[in-house]
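Pilot study result, target chain (376 residues):
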Amino acid sequence: MIIGVSREIKDNEFRVGLVPAGARALREAGHTVLVEKGAGLGSSITDDEYRGAGAEMVQSASEVWSRSELVVKVKEPRPEEYAYLRPGLAVFTFFHLAADHRLAGELIERGVAAIAYETIELPDHTLPVLAPMSEVAGRLAVLAGAHYLTKAQGGRGVLLSGVPGVESGAVTIIGAGVAGVNAAKMAVGLGARVTILDTNAARLRYLDDLFGVKVETLHSNSHNIEMCLSRSDLLIGAVHIPGSRTPRLVTRDMLRLMKKGSVIVDVSVDQGGCVESIRPTTHSDPVYMEEGVLHYGVANMPGAVPRTSTFALTNATLPYVLALSSQGVKRALASSEPLRRGANVLDGKVVHRNVASSLGRPYEELPLKAGNGLSA
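Predicted structure:
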């Protein structure tokens, strides 16, 4: 198979879909790897490193897309890339289609096989490809919040760690998944007062054992959220439901409970966000003010630390890239339940139940086993 890696063009996105070690593994498996020149430079990976791994360097993104059978990316195709989409092409990347009706329509109409990193799911319901980026985003969320709490950035002038004789900042985290736990680790490390909310009692018990008295755990409901908002300096949204739009747990009216100059960082903004007033922003224009509260809605937070993020991401994606390329897309989907859950669009149909529900489109169930229509 011919696997293509193009340069990411989303605002300030410096990650790349494949590292040289991955290119080498694919070449050793008998595949051709095309890499757009300069695609890895943002992650401090040179063209020579790719060449040394056996990749073929090509001059343009259009050549990568036109020659490839499988394109491996980091972020969803941008409008400038829609023209490259075509029947028979498979794209393996983060899609977050629940909040992107236009892209979903393009993938359906153009007959693209869209396999999404964020919905690949193991039997224990963990998300192996999303997890490393959630770890990065959760940790960055606290750093971003701490930065924008400074007066010079429009915040209320709070140091999260406090100093002797002065109380530390209060951090509230909604969602106790991978991103939320990593945000809690970072906030605790800085010395902040941390509260984390979730609806999963077992998860809260785990966090109580993990953090002890350093973190307060609360059941997530409107009453407890409002109570936490009134005392928070930094609110971190870290809610995720695979394939679905994030439920809006913080309404616009609730913002009035927050202190002027407090900060919201919604890690789940690429799935719509759990804060009603959040909207996607970029690294070049990351914040805006509403109701006296600074909102940070960067949808590709890990792109700020591309070297770390690229290697963490491709460690997780490479086994699936090898399966897709060696078996072919449909056979790979038929033989792997986690990978099958990653399929969002196939042959012009939405094949992930939550994605279909979020988009308001018909759902087409994939065959459960090889030989039932997926083996072609």
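One observation from the pilot: The mean pLDDT is 95. A full batch analysis is planned for the follow-on phase.
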